[in-house]
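Record type: monomer structure entry
Structure origin: computed from sequence
Chain ID: A
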Amino acid sequence: MPDRERTSVDHLEHARELVWEALQKMEEAQRIMFRAGDCYVSQVWGDGVRTVIEMTERMADIAGDLSTSHIEIGRLVKTDTARDPQPPA
């Protein structure tokens, strides 16, 4: 059931904020993973280094997807805002 007190723009902006927060958390997780990788290198745990690199590469792909989603939501917000929608009565 649609929320009659909020417009599509309101919902899109909220979703965009959540995606942005997720992107920030993903970047923080990547920085922590790099630190874990540094520990593996200093402790000469070869397999751990390889795994950390693979995981951070996957995280980078996910971050790219999140960034693309953030941009697309922003485009929808612009489109909807340009239409100046009137909330249903």
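Annotation 1: The radius of gyration is 20 Å.
Annotation 2: Residues 8-82 form one domain.
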